[in-house]
Amino acid sequence: MSHLRELQENFQSYIIEGNPAVINQISDFERLSAQQRADLYKTSYQLRLLEIMENDFSGLYAMMGKEAFEKMGRAYIDSYPSNHFNILYFDRHFSKFLSTYEFAKPIYIEMADFEWLLGQALMAADAPQLTVNDLAKVPPEQWGGMRLTFHPSTRLIDLFTNAPEIWKAQSANEPVPKVSYHRTATTWLVWRYDLHAYFLSLNAHQAWMFTAFQAGHDFEYICNGLTEWMAEEEVAQFAALTLRDWFSEGIISEIALVA
Prior knowledge:
Layout: H1 3-17, H2 34-56, H3 58-64, H4 66-79, H5 94-98, H6 106-123, H7 132-136, E1 146-150, E2 155-161, H8 163-171, E3 181-193, E4 196-202, H9 204-214, H10 219-226, H11 232-248, E5 252-257
Antiparallel strand pairs: 1-5, 2-3, 3-4
Helix pairs in contact: 1-2, 2-4, 3-4, 3-6, 9-10, 10-11
């Protein structure tokens, strides 16, 4: 290994893992010792990672406050050193970390999970986003065999807290509601449209529809399944209105008609 390569690897090891081997390869300079010079870079690196976390989890940052968030952030950096070439994936283990962090509350964990999905929606692959006009082109006699492909940015998450409402109020600079916990989870749909991340809550029937379509089932199967929860005469209208909303929001990317 060349001297330069060894120096680079040792320097990286010190910045990320705290391995002191590089200190002996650095010279003192004026009033700064080799240790101090190396620590300047390490501190700058950690501050950059904290900045990324504050941006990715702005809602959690607002809830916890600067001091508590930075303390937690530094603990995360120590527990999960960055090992991916893309810095955007640095905080991908944050939720796992929070589940064992002694000062974490359930609302912190769910806020982090929710904000991570918002970020993932923004980075998801591009695909067409169909409209109600595309749905209207499907002949009525072919609705039964209709299958849908959702936009790659769509995600479902079940939350027992009101984290999305808190995040929305924070983002709009509106009064933030108090934290509330619920015995049953609410399913939230997250997706990207026009370079922005959006979310809405789904009731149990809509969540079932989503997962059934996602599994490859057709509209006839969906309608038959919905009769488990509602009267048969109510099914068609409920399913059609739900689809209208999804197409209006840009959630659907493809329609397949199966004979």
